[in-house]
Write a structure and sequence with these properties.
This is tRNA(Met) cytidine acetyltransferase TmcA. It is built from 24 helices and 20 strands. The protein has 667 residues and is α/β, with parallel strands linked by helices.
């Protein structure tokens, strides 16, 4: 222990932080962590599900601490390893800190189910994650600066070479910060973005800028707790407003004066961020270029490209620790945080090939390509790619450079009973995004029995986009896919994106009824049938969409390439749909077209249904007018009115369908 104490003092002088992995049985490893806490003064934040330590937080809540600083921390990965939280914790530690990682014994760890896998594997129970654990252990073996303490082996510290003394930042602007502050001081109206890895002083820079200018300033961020550093430098001019509250102000007042400063901007949903930025003459956005908060390269490509007056600045020199910090280097190696700028177009002939999930070097290439194209790519995706079941990958290469990547996921294959229970709204098993949606919102109770392969992500090298490589890779994968009924994709609908999927051969089978918070777009789903059963599903769902389209106000003006169907009669499928709404748990959005046709065939008052479906009255106003206590009471009233209307039209048929539908919850 004395060696560790001496090394800790040296780390403060050198400006270093280190990872200490303690691998062993639970009681033993926690005892060693407690000894360290008692021997080394510090904050000693414990990150894990359970702990008796005074400073304790669960991994999923760690993002609320981004922007804060701690001296020493313990991350408990003995039952589950949330690597995004682990990386975020590393970014909060000050120079001289230890990040103590508790793990199972290395020999047992690959076979041990990981509780965190429930978040990303789409499995009912936790699964072992041998590929990621192997990657983790190889990273440790290749890293000479990490300390590993295994229960089965005597503890010894490596002989680390000396490092020059580090001089901490004084609080005054450093060279890079001073240059950017000068540019911001005289910036005309527009948007400035500062990207950097953690610890480079982005938040401090934003606070310094606020303190220097005289114009009004509004600060926002994913969480107020994450703005401590910014607030410290901004002083009395710090004026924080939460993103959702700020949007309400903008909606009520229109444009606002002065500057908007957004800390950790990539962690705010793109549509919301765009609405906030567009309301101010000037905006300063800071964001981390590492994947646990959104990658800087993808953030610039996807979000910032929409602002023609964008000014982009970077910070490269660490301020809160020394250059070459061992903790930063090992986290970067473990989670592939090498968000290098793309500088040169790849050349050469294109080759395409499928990849096994165990071909780790190629899987890493896919992940890096995804990170450059999608600013929401995160370590969660890395875990899923390596160990989740049912993953399929295709890569297009030019020489040694990956230029396009396709990631597909197996879906469907549910039993007939389970698929019908999903259709009725009685069950929602994990995973199967498109397959379940085609049952839960589509017209076929057996839709989820078909097997599909969903395109989860497609990414094309920035210098190779709009050259046909992406569609060629999809065509290649389609030609070589066997054992399933269709390929599918779920995407945030824009006309341009739909044209791409349409050119690839996809047909629309579902249109969403509300905008997604993450994209600001309506969800659309499309399939390419590969078998006769898949083709029958396509025809059925397209016909259903075409019948419903006259009542889907948000979609009427879109060019959707649906068959021409003009029918307002109540079909057999309508009766089944209405029975699912009235007698089971089918959502109103799924039954919307059938409900419109029902209301045209009955003269009953049906106030709750007509108010929302025919008159477009808001749920809040409708509840108030009908003296209903909230959305649940409104939905119950609407189901009862549908029941009443069906009985009025054909009581025998309605009762038979009621018996048939309600049986679906028992299997």
């Amino acid at each position: 222990m004395q060696q560790l104490i001496e090394l800790s003092a040296r780390m403060v002088r050198e400006g270093f932080r280190r990872l200490l992995v303690i691998a062993g049985q639970p009681a033993w490893s926690e005892a060693q962590a407690s000894t360290l806490r008692d021997s080394l003064p510090g904050d000693w934040l414990w990150v894990g599900e359970n702990s008796g330590w005074s400073q304790h937080i669960q991994p999923r809540a760690l993002t609320t601490l981004l922007g804060r600083e701690f001296h020493h921390a313990v991350f408990d990965a003995r039952e589950g390893f949330d690597v995004a939280a682990f990386a975020a914790l590393g970014g909060t530690l000050t120079a001289g800190s230890w990040l103590v990682l508790l793990t199972p014994p290395f020999a047992l760890w690959p076979q041990q189910p990981d509780a965190d896998s429930l978040r990303w594997s789409d499995t009912a129970e936790p699964i072992p994650t041998p590929l990621f654990i192997d990657h983790f252990c190889r990273t440790l073996r290749d890293d000479p600066q990490t300390v590993v303490w295994q229960q089965a082996s005597p503890f010894s510290l490596p002989d680390f070479p000396p490092w020059p003394e580090w001089h901490a930042a004084t609080g005054a602007p450093e060279h890079e910060q001073a240059q950017i502050l000068e540019q911001l001081q005289h910036m005309p109206p527009g948007v400035a973005v500062v990207t950097a890895p953690r610890g480079r002083g982005k938040s401090a820079l934003a606070g310094m800028h606020i303190a220097r200018i005289s114009e009004p300033v509004t600060v926002t961020a994913p969480a107020r707790a994450a703005t401590d550093v910014l607030a410290q430098y901004a002083g009395e001019r710090f004026n924080f407003i939460a993103p959702d509250v700020l949007l309400q102000q903008i909606t009520a007042q229109g444009t606002l004066p002065g500057w908007l400063v957004v800390d950790e901007a990539a962690a705010i949903p793109g549509p919301l961020l765009h609405a906030l930025v567009s309301a101010f003459p000037r905006a300063l956005l800071t964001t981390t270029v590492q994947g646990y908060e959104g990658t800087g390269q993808g953030f610039l490509l996807k979000f910032c490209a929409g602002f023609p007056q964008l000014r982009h600045y970077t910070l490269s020199t660490p301020l809160r620790w020394a250059q070459g910090c061992p903790l930063e280097q090992v986290i970067n190696a473990l989670l592939l945080f090498d968000d290098e700028p793309v500088v040169k177009p790849p050349t050469g002939d294109i080759t395409m090939q499928p990849l096994s999930a165990r071909a780790w070097q190629e899987t890493a290439a896919i992940y890096r390509l995804l990170a450059s194209a999608h600013y929401r790519t995160s370590p969660l995706d890395l875990r899923r790619m390596m160990d989740a079941p049912g993953q399929h990958f295709w890569l297009a290469w030019r020489a040694q450079t990956a230029v396009a990547a396709l990631w597909m996921v197996e879906e469907g294959g549910l039993s007939a009973d389970l698929s019908q229970a999903v259709w009725a709204g009685f069950r929602r098993p994990r995973g199967n995004l498109v397959a379940q949606s085609l049952a839960a919102h589509g017209g076929s109770p057996l839709a989820a029995t078909l097997r599909g392969r969903r395109i989860s992500r497609i990414a094309v090298h920035p210098f190779c986009q709009r050259t046909g490589i992406g569609s060629a890779l999809i065509a290649h994968a389609r030609a070589h896919t066997t054992g399933c009924d269709y390929l599918s994709v779920s995407f945030g609908y824009t006309p341009e994106l739909w044209r791409f999927w349409q050119r690839c051969g996809f047909s629309l089978v579902r249109l969403g009824s509300h905008r997604e918070a993450s994209s600001g777009c309506f969800t659309a789903m499309a399939i390419i049938p590969l078998t006769a059963a898949g083709e029958a599903l396509r025809v059925r769902e397209q016909t259903r969409l075409a019948r419903d389209l006259p009542w889907l106000a948000d979609w009427r003006e879109e060019t959707l390439s649906l068959p021409v169907v003009q029918s307002t009669t109540l079909s057999e499928e309508d009766w089944l749909e209405l029975a699912g709404f009235a007698f089971a748990h089918r959502p109103l959005s799924a039954a919307y077209g059938a409900l419109c046709r029902l209301l045209a065939h009955t003269h009953l008052p049906l106030l709750a249904l007509r108010g929302q479906v025919s008159d477009g009255e808001s749920e809040q106003a409708l509840c108030q007018r009908l003296s209903l206590n909230g959305r649940k009471a409104l939905l119950l009233s609407q189901r009862q009115e549908c029941d009443q209307a069906l009985l009025h039209l054909d009581a025998d048929r309605a009762l038979k369908l009621k018996t048939q539908v309600q049986k679906l919850q028992f299997f």
